[in-house]
Design goal:
This protein is an alpha+beta fold. It has seven helices and eleven strands. Helices cover 31% and strands 29% of the residues.
């Protein structure tokens, strides 16, 4: 599956980054990951299933999206559909699953596309991959959550350094996009390829599935 590349001052980013809003909106820059993942998903859906050769749209070329265009789109979708609480305590919850579901339903309906959308289609660890593979086979990037209550249950994100996969960062509460599932022979493990914080990362499939729950799950979209 291809993914969106955003050009910000000639620097290319793998999807959006909520940190771009730090100077304008400190709450969004900290808790806006759900909005970013939904906008990434919408842009890919439009690009694959809606655009035509004679369509003139700002996201026609997903490999070189202008930063200002992407930012304006996120601001609009945040205002229209993917809003979350501005109260200090509630804002830490970020974008809620039912808000995601409602916003994506509206988006799909406006595009004239029939779909079934459900948050947390299953919490059975032996079944979740069938939903993930179904979406990836249709080139739909998956809005995914990881949420645990204990700080020592962090999910590790990996990147390649000198041709070796190394731990880069971790989280206990976050939304991101799953783009692919790959085998890493040298590690003898399966990894999700994900977009988060404007970068490409790798996450061990087993690490995420082991914490599967209503809170650690996916927004499933069936076309």
């Amino acid at each position: 599956m291809g993914f969106i590349t955003i050009n910000k001052n000639q620097e290319l980013y793998y999807g959006g980054k909520q940190g771009w809003w730090k100077e304008d909106d400190s709450i969004f820059s900290e808790y806006g990951c759900g909005v970013i993942s939904m906008c990434n998903m919408e842009i890919l859906l439009w690009n694959k299933y809606v655009k035509t050769d004679d369509t003139e749209e700002i996201f026609y070329d997903i490999n070189n999206i202008a930063y200002d265009d992407y930012r304006n789109y996120v601001n609009k979708r945040y205002k229209d559909s993917y809003f979350f609480s501005r109260f200090k305590f509630l804002s830490k919850l970020g974008l809620l699953p039912w808000t995601m579901k409602s916003g994506l339903k509206t988006f799909m309906r406006q595009l004239g596309m029939k779909s079934k959308i459900k948050w947390a289609p299953t919490i059975r660890k032996n079944c979740i991959m069938s939903y993930i593979e179904d979406m990836l086979n249709k080139d739909i990037p998956i809005t995914t959550s990881y949420f645990v209550f204990l700080r020592n249950r962090q999910l590790d994100f990996y990147t390649y350094e000198n041709s070796k996969l190394c731990k880069s960062t971790s989280c206990t509460s976050h939304y991101f996009n799953i783009i692919d599932v790959v085998d890493i022979p040298e590690n003898d493990e399966k990894y999700f390829v994900v977009s988060s914080w404007g970068k490409k990362y790798y996450i061990k499939v087993v690490d995420w599935i082991n914490k599967l729950s209503f809170f650690t799950n996916i927004l499933y979209c069936s076309l």
